[in-house]
Fold:
Amino acid sequence: MLDIKLIRENPGSVRQALEKRGDTFVLDDILKIDEDYRSLLRQTEELRAKHNQASKQLGQSKEKPPELIAQMRQLGEQISSLQQQTKEVKAQLDSLLLELPNIPHPSVPLGKDESDNVVVRTWGEPKEFSFKPLPHWELGEKLGIIDFERGVKLSGTRFYVLKGLGARLQRALISFMLDVHVNEHGYKEIYPPFMVKRECMVGSGNLPKFGDNLYHDEEDDFWFIPTAEVPLTNLHRDEILSADSLPLYYVAYTPCFRREKMSAGKDIRGIKRGHQFDKVELYKLTTPESSDEELEKLVADAEDICQKLDIPHHVVQLCTGDLGFAACKTYDIEMWAPGCAEWLEVSSCSNCSDFQARRANIRYRPEPGAKPQLIHTLNGSGLALPRVLIAVLENYQQADGTVLIPEVLGPYLRAT
Structure:
């Protein structure tokens, strides 16, 4: 959520920043409702002052004049009415503010869509095969490790079953990534709930904007998480953290649930897109001064997984028009998949500045006795499955149809 004070004092710069994102949100509505809200607050305070004055007079009077009692009753009714109006107008204001995306960081390249994104660096060279590399959907079926037919039988389109070594490879990748991030990168592992309250979705920025893409249990008002970013954002909701506790580094494995609304004929083969997938998520809570540096470290931590798996990849900085709703700056990491002949996004690392912290009311105290300030939050996949699984299968395939296992995964796949 953007700071209403920023919008109030700098409407022109906020409008320009939103236009860079391609957003046409009309700020005039917010400014008008904000003006009404502040006017109601002033009226309420003025009436309270009159009410307090009348109460003081009544307390000093021995006879308790009926006209003074009537005046206090009338003032009380007016105050109650104004408070209700104020509450309703504040709800309108908050509703509009929740629809506004974050403002791009000054270093984000200007652009209208993904075609204007910038490749920052590339690691590794795509392998030259002596045969035509197969896509993972053919490899998986030939090896008997991906079962599309039974996935559809169980749950419908966009579902599949991993069997035998396919399931073990998926589990090995998850364990490997968690171990690297915990033991080498210094993250604390979290195992969060996979269903959360509505306020958690609001705090992370998923509601109300993306309600149509979320799975929801209406009876208990539980929301199935689209990413571990949601519960990790809300771990410290409504808390004031001490400065010496920052930065906080969290890593969590969770399944993720999203309504994938794809165009007919787009990404219909394989396991690249689905309503359910696994992901290892990295999350940071930092001071505002350190968040830019922490984003670069976050990207490096995610990249390290790609390098340890020895899979070619590149890092792409997103332009203003391709930024996610809550992000002010984002880098995507894309692995090369030779069978699909495309770069697959396996991580999206973002600095969300104080956008989520304002929604979730997460603050820190710079020093004892100081006024609490909003923290900055950062998140990124470290990494996302099944795309890493796809990249492993397609990059490590052999001419005879078998697939080698990356050396770092050996300890996780050996029989016990």
